[in-house]
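input
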Amino acid sequence: MYYLRILRMAKRRAQKRQAIPQWADLQHISALYTQAQQLTVETGIPHQVDHIVPLTSKQVCGLHCEHNLQVLTAAENNAKNNKLIEE
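output
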């Protein structure tokens, strides 16, 4: 089981790397991950960075860039799963 988890995590990291466009603002992306960590510490509620348009899904593939990221609680992100939620 542990081995499978490591493989899934490695696959996810590779998907993110491949989905980063050259024009992405890496400092802004890093700031979003920092914000998620800070909110987790401040509130005691786990927060994560979510891809608004999933990196991979049956319908669409999004980019790993600042315009496609948002900070959500872990519960909200997990409930969203790998779906595109249209407003």
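quick obs: The first strand starts at residue 47 and ends at 51.
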